[in-house]
Design a protein that fits this description.
Elements lengths: L2 E5 L3 E5 L13 E5 L1 H11 L3 E5 L1 E2 L3 H12 L8 E2 L6 E5 L8 E5 L15 H5 L4 E5 L1 H5 L1 H16 L3 E5 L9 H11 L5 E3 L2 H8 L15 H14 L3 E11 L2 E9 L4 E3 L3 E3 L8 H15 L3 H15 L11 H8 L10
Parallel strand pairs: 1-4, 1-9, 2-7, 5-6, 9-10, 10-11, 11-12
Antiparallel strand pairs: 2-3, 7-8, 12-13, 13-14, 13-15
Length: about 350
Amino acid sequence: MAKVVTLGEIMLRLSSPNGKRFVQSDVLDVIYGGGEANVAISAANYGHEAIFVTKVPKHEIGQCAVNALRRYGVNTNYIARGGDRLGIYFLETGASMRPSKVIYDRAHSSIAEADPSDFDFDAIMEGAQWFHWSGITPAISDKSAELTRIACEAAKRHGVTVSVDLNFRKKLWTKEKAQSIMKPLMKYVDVCIGNEEDAELCLGFKPDADVQSGKTDAEGYKGIFKAMAKEFGFKYVISTLRESFSATHNGWKAMIYNGEEFYESKRYDINPIIDRVGGGDSFAGGIIHGLLTKPNQGAALEFAVAASALKHTIFGDFNLVSADEVETLAGGDASGRVQR
């Protein structure tokens, strides 16, 4: 299996239990997660050597975050220690027509103020096959954006495939700031993952598709995929296509383009959703595994879509499924019958 490196922030997640609103909750469930940490967990579950790079405070809460990664087999040897705090986010899980709600409390976190000197990216990238980051990391702070660029340069020096999940977060930056940072970083990227909103806000591309009404016809994406591949030199352009009927009922499929041909995955009807946080990260983890191990882009995409469909049924940020479980679903068994 491959050596897969991810860079980003792991946060303390405090979520209201049992579908309660924040104002009803006397206790909050504690869990850890974050975009690239979630991807590392998936890679480890599929048998890869998964390395997560971040900085956490040198106290017990920072150690709890590290322990959460170690529990599922992620290599934490390159996590720097220091700074004042671990980022926090609060999650109120929605239901039916009431959407989920996220409140961030992550300013001045350890990774937001980390210096390049905290990491030896040449050592980290040595022997790696894949490096993954998301648009959340450079959005955290200008220092994190610089850290992302330095990591990408090291990956290129070592011949590592680089993927990005565009992941625009309007609570972290504006589309103007996003494009000023993200566009120059695209020259390092081989595999670009993002939905229609991400592509528009991070890179300025808009597909011909009415996503709000659920009309995610793949034809509307073909022109934008070709234009993005041409402008930035991506080897693969990939988008998830989510139909949001309610907070607990989604349609889910994806499309991939390798510069020559398009492939559209089968569609999953996910109802009820247990926890959709980390759904996109589980897709990214699945596509990384798929492109590293599958014979063609179609097989890689089917693995990724099945993996992320399963994540919607799992509480927490992490996609705690094995490659065999994903293969079973991708192969057509969506019955949910008890495995005896």
